[in-house]
């Protein structure tokens, strides 16, 4: 698929060439061109009645919201199918300051289907909280350490050191800057990661070689009842299954996190799986933390055109018609309440609509308020690198769509804050 970006005054047209057929999808990056839009109040039921208290929120309105997201956007979130776990390799790292485990999580009846998790932990007498997140190109690309198993699953060719969808040694460490393991363990936290393509390769036919197809019988769900983002999110829950049996880990304090499409997956995982104590969405954009009804940056139509496998079929009904969606992404963030949530943007990442991410989080605060948890305490989006809020927190890093050391330092401060409070 070839993407061409054509600038036309302030409106951006993205020309998508797909199977020889091309279409122009308009996209706006001018604040003055954003038309007015209406958001549903999180504390009002679909029929307009008000939610009176926490009990009603938890027993009625929250399930109503989750069902709407299932039906219109992400699909079902199946239960577990984990049979067993095995720590395949354990080593001391960082001059004795930490340890590293390479773990297999067996998913089906046959031991041939497993996930490879890479876990770094500080040396500690007490169990430690862990950040759990998916990576884009195999555990081996998160560090230069040659002892990490080279991933032999399908990997997109646009990653360094990958050709014919196969990783080579030269892909080691290609995204190491996104995983500052030593920094994280030096602050007393662990970090677990897993290659998202092990759950479902990221292309329209990927489901045939992923859990949606391979675990269809065990999970009792047809592949079209969920989609790729759902499969990736579901994998994060399987990582949590493992963390719960690892004695070095305090699995009641797992923070699920993700960047970009994997941030969308992290949010969906946190919405469905309340075992995650908190969530971090980094530059997750459209279909993640950003409002869809705000016409800025990527749109539902772009998502459905470039990535038809990410969402359920029904989502196509809203291409070019976001205003008809019965929900918007602020409700996804609200469904995570009262658990702490951190949303981040990057100043040059207009495609992900930083302001739309901020506004969604601000709106979600209405539900946190029910629990007497303070919202962002600021109406306008803050300047770059001025984090705001406490348990509901936001920052906009200076620069491009990425996850950098600046972001991680803020995540660690956030973790210190939310866990110290308990
Ligand atoms: C594309 C896509 C985004 C996504 C991003 C990523 O830019 O349009 O929705 O978040 O890829 O995952 O890096």
UniProtKB/TrEMBL annotation:
One of its GO terms (molecular function) is carboxylic ester hydrolase activity. Pfam families: GCE_fung. InterPro entries: AB_hydrolase_fold, GCE-like_dom. The keyword Signal applies. Keywords: Hydrolase, Serine esterase, Signal. Residues 227-369 form the 4-O-methyl-glucuronoyl methylesterase-like domain. It comes from the Bacteria. This is 4-O-methyl-glucuronoyl methylesterase-like domain-containing protein. The lineage of its organism: Bacteria, Pseudomonadati, Bacteroidota, Cytophagia, Cytophagales.
